[in-house]
Amino acid sequence: MPAKSETELDELQSVADDTASQARRVVAAYANDADECRVFLSMLGIAPAKTEV
Asked: What superkingdom heads the lineage (predicted)?
């Protein structure tokens, strides 16, 4: 599979909030610890959820 060109990468949009939330849940369910969870989220290009204080 050829690498994506710069124009194709520029056309990508960030995932919707609900999609990112679902992905966080799946990642959290399969991760063995918090560090692994952060790595998986990073691989997907999704930031961890922000906690409200």
From this structure: Bacteria
